[in-house]
Amino acid sequence: MADKDSGGCEFSAGCFIGGLVGGLLGAVAALLIAPQAGEDTRALLREKGIELKERAEDASFDARRKAEDAAAQARLRAEDAAAQASDRASMVRESAKLTLDEKVSQVKDAIDTGKQAADRKKDEMMHNLDAEKGSKPMPGKEG
């Protein structure tokens, strides 16, 4: 049973170049075996060499263009991700600020309520003290 990784090759630059080189070698072998004049063989080899060079340049250009496109897309995705992260951080900061402001307001309200309760209790105690002074004779002033 053949392993997936060891059998056949998926399309890649190396596979493409291997195919081109194999095709060129096959063409050269066919030309050398076929009965032709030396000048015709050299011209045909020159043409095949030029054709192979053009195919290799085209493959290189396509690979470079695809790599540049992939890099541009990766850059855009990274920028989008950074913008989303920044937006989320901003929302978290705003939420935290609102929560903090709310808690500070609650503490201030509690302090104000405590002060009012203390003032009321103080006033009540002072009133009770004044009432007690008015109902009892003061020592040393018996009349």
List keywords for this structure.
mainly alpha, 143 residues
Question: Could you explain how this protein is built, in words?
Answer:
With 143 residues, this protein is mainly alpha-helical. The protein has one domain (13-134). 83% of the residues lie in helices and 0% in strands. The chain contains 2 helices and no strands. It has helices at residues 13-33, 38-135. Helix 1 packs antiparallel against helix 2. The radius of gyration is 47 Å and the shape is rod-shaped.
Q: Fraction of residues in helices?
A: over 70%
Tell me the series of helices and strands, N- to C-terminal. Answer: HH
The unreliable regions are none
Tell me the distance between the termini. Answer: 127 Å
Class by SSE composition: mainly alpha
How many strand units?
Answer: 0
In round numbers, the mean pLDDT is 82
Which helices and strands occur, and which strands form pairs?
Blueprint: H1 13-33, H2 38-135
Helix pairs in contact: 1-2
State the gist of this model.
The protein is mostly helical. The chain contains 2 helices and no strands.
